[in-house]
Amino acid sequence: MTSTENSAGTMSSTGALRVLVAYASRFGSTRGVAERIAATIGRGGHRVELQVCGDGLDVSAYDAVVFGSAVFNQRWLPEGDEFVQRNIDALASRPVWLFSVGTFGDRKRLIGPLVKREPTGIREVQRSIRPRDYRVFAGVIDRHQWPFLSRLFYHALGGRLGDNRDWREIDEWAGVVGHALRLEARRLEHG
């Protein structure tokens, strides 16, 4: 193994890591967040692959993983849960960052921390794979996706319909992930 390889043997001769940004999205909001994260990390010189999670997606081919899923009914999408369970050992053996796209996100003043809509079972996932970080971002809330009473309750709590994604917040987080990946690449390069 050369000094520019990790246990997966995928690090390039230039010291760039091979990074998977995978996502599970129902209506496209989470896909948009994943695309933005992938673009930001890619500007740092890493080889980034953006993939929708699916049966054939094998994490072991990558040096690091960023994974996110939409949250519906307080759960990650089934394909998101299945992706994590199918790749649990590989995820536990490399740097991983997780995110969810929910109703409010985790940074909305006052109400955000109370109703950020973390998926059921996220604590167990965190204990199993020990991600470097986990965030909940606000998503897109379309009128046709919610029943009238739910919209009323959501509005009463300070929510608004439409695109609630905070691109500055997403870019900042992706920048932190990118910086950590550069440090990881240097660590691997220098043994």
Rg calculated over all Cα atoms? 17 Å
CATH topology heading: Rossmann fold
Biggest beta-sheet profile: 6 strands, mixed
CATH superfamily: Flavodoxin domain
Give the mean pLDDT. 83
From the coordinates shown, what is the CATH architecture? 3-Layer(aba) Sandwich
β-strand amount: 15-25%
Number of continuous helical runs:
6
Helix content: 25-40%
Query: What's the end-to-end separation, in Å?
Result: 11 Å
Task: Return residue spans where pLDDT drops below 50 for at least 5 consecutive residues.
Answer: 1-9
Structural class: alpha/beta
Number of strands: 8
How many independent structural domains?
1
Q: Sketch the topology as an H/E string, one letter per element.
A: EHEEEHHEHEEHEH
CATH class categorisation: Alpha Beta
Shape call: globular
Mind explaining what this structure looks like?
The protein has 191 residues and is of the alpha/beta class. The protein has one domain (18-189): Rossmann fold. The protein has helices spanning 29-42, 78-86, 88-92, 122-129, 148-156, 167-189, and strands at 18-24, 47-52, 64-72, 75-76, 96-102, 133-138, 140-141, 162-163. Strands 1, 2, 3, 4, 5 and 6 form a 6-stranded mixed beta sheet that branches. A hairpin with a 2-residue loop joins strand 3 and strand 4. The longest helix is centred in the last third of the chain and has 23 residues, at 167-189. The radius of gyration is 17 Å and the shape is globular. Mean pLDDT is 83; it is low at 1-9.
